[in-house]
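Can you give me the bound-state structure? Components:
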Amino acid sequence: MAGAVNRLSRFNMTALALGFAFLYLPIVILVIYSFNASRLVNVWGGWSLRWYVEFFNDRAMLEAAWMSLRVAAVSATLATLLGTLAAIGLARGERFAGRALFSGMLYSPLVMPEVISGLSLLLLFVALNAERGFWTVTVAHTTLTMCFVAVVVQSRLTSLDRSLEEAAMDLGCNPVKAFVMVTLPLILPAIVAGWMLAFTLSLDDVVIASFTTGPGSATLPIRIYSEVRLGVKPEINAICTLVIALITVLIVVASVASRLSSSQGESAAPL
Amino acid sequence: MSTRRIFARPARYATIAPYLWMALFFLVPFGFVLKISLSQTAIAQPPYTPVFDLGEGWEAFKAAFEQLSLDNFRLLLSDNLYILSYLRSLVVAVTSTLILLVIGYPIAYGMARLPQRWQGIAMILVIVPFWTSFLIRIYAWINILQHDGLLNQILLALHLVSGPVAWLSTDTAMYIGIVYSYLPFMILPLYATLAKMDRTLLEAAEDLGASPAKAFWLVTFPLSLPGVGAGVLLCVIPIVGEFVIPDLLAGSNSLMIGQTLWLEFFTNKDWPVASAVAIALLLLLVPPLLLYDRLQRRQIEGGR
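Here's the bound-state model for the whole set.
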């Protein structure tokens, strides 16, 4: 029995159509213009791969891209390990001393302004006399992204039916074995999704990387950012399109992975 | 002993590594920010006078303690530049969060009204932009908003304006960029509460003679307030400290606090003042952060 209030009104449809157009049109336009043959960014000169060729001949840009990919891969892997452990502790550890502090430390980086996280990590690295470069950026990104992994994995663990673990233990598994044999396969899709989220977040970060990197080791976003400040360049369109393509592939893989896991928990963060 | 309790012990051991990691790389650094905000600016590498070194014993510690100075904080209060950029950050954060709420609510509402099988797709469509690079999305808007960009081309072709409008380096551009970047953060918590809502309540309101508008304001909106709170906090806290969007899209005549911090650090190389700005910003954010922390814990742990 659907009353008038349950139907999708014209107003709802308009809101949805405008909303999604707003979200997607700018990206679509960027992708189209990356194939523009003209040097003038906004004059259409026919289809061309010219700016992609330009990018693959730009040594400095390529080096930055390589640095970013390495940082993203290493920090996402570390973050997935640490974030999953943290999620297990929060979802299964019941009450323990320092739990509130622990969850506070894990949740606040999700909204903490990046300028604060970046500055504070840099001051730590200076105090520790650490040489700034690949490892400092990697550690910084791990710290930020492990929190996102923890939230994704924890909400999956919380929504999971615990009687499976308990059955395994009743049948004689010790807790570690029950976890590895029963729980881990069930949360694997969330762990994979967490890794990819960590990877894309790391690939995207300008502010924290600017604070924590050293001379001569710029990441791709730092380079893009400094180019963008000087104005729009067609080559940047091409680079951005390549990054979007890479992330799209990752999202498709992630959504296939999460298709395998059925229900998702809800959290306040859009994950 | 219940199985859950037996399970809990190894689970607690799992927190050791992430606990230590977050303590070292998230908590301890704030101590350094505080310490350096109390030190004096120096032309050196690193550019501040050392405040204290625990290795030098109690006397040295006492001497150093007496040297701590609140000069940097006094500077923040005495120079209009800092106060104005704090105020601007607050105004921008509150204004853009309100715009986000007004735009995000109808979208989330529409999503919750979609047939079940479309809701999942709509949700993925909202999440995908969050995953694609944030910097790239800002850059996409620079493309559109620049002097000879698509927006001006369209407006000129439609004869809506007589000459190209300067969109870039204006507050309008900055608000477009912020709303665009944070929209998923507003939509998803709103959608989560609206989708869970019991529709029979609305039917009851309708049966009792309430107009759709009245039913919305008396039933739907009050019930969606937890989602509104989550969305507002997820947007307002990071926007206060936003750097990249105002730096790329807004004009340079008035700065947000994140930009001021960046300027002090990278351009003026004044680490103590940058640290003082960070501490002051952090103090401003503590109440909303605590609120957010409570909300997040309740959301994830499901009213345990």
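A couple of observations. Chain A touches chain B through 114 residues (CB under 8 Å). Chain A is about 70% helix and 0% strand.
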